[in-house]
Amino acid sequence: MKKMTRKSIVFFFFILLISSSLASYANTSNRVQQAAQEGLIHFLGKIPVGSEKKYGFNSRQEFDWAFLGAPYELYTIHPDLLVSERPVGSGFLTPLEIWRFPVLSQGSMRTLLTVAKVEGEWKAVAIGGAGIAFELDRLEEIYSFDRNNTKRVLLRLFQIKSDFVSIGNLTQRIEETMFAPLQSARMQMRLGEAERIIYSLPELVLILQKKFKSVILDLPRDEQTKPRKDGKKKDK
After folding, report:
1. pTM of the shown model
2. Cα–Cα distance measured from residue 62 to residue 46, given in angstroms and rounded to the nearest whole number
3. Cα separation, 175 vs 89, whole angstroms
4. Are 184 and 176 in contact (CB under 8 A)?
């Protein structure tokens, strides 16, 4: 009877922890979502006339049908961890306080709206990245992403200019999800277009350590860790 009681207590606190985590996630997501909604029309209007296709749109009329999809939170891995012997586990990935919202129109992703924390406030800061939006649209279909249960994370490695997308659900820790390379990472890792590969985080870190350790060590520190929040970073 005592064993059952202990198990029940442990289970209760486990459920409480998960609920608290999801509530915190939802609260942050709501503030981020509001900033994105407020910035969408503003940034669509800043797209230069004649440049619509560079942002994934065929015409300005498609702006009228634009809406936001489920956002991706940006994470990175600190270079010191990539070149260390530390085991991969909790805290290995660093959140960047940046979210990227797919902008959809007529049923497909066209571009990405970036929301970042600026002086303590969430604000929409940039629009762009039609190439990445196209890739995410395709990957969400391939891996059957669920709007309400998929943990959407973009892992950005500034050191080698590579991006990966997480494949996992909301109850998983980020370190437990799988990661699929986007085109930027495929080029760096010399993967074929037809290769449908996903990695666990330990597998990915091992590959990065073997292939890119010297590259990471040679880069200036500010280039290794400093994300751009001003919208000037170019995405293809």
Report:
1. 0.78
2. 15
3. 6
4. no
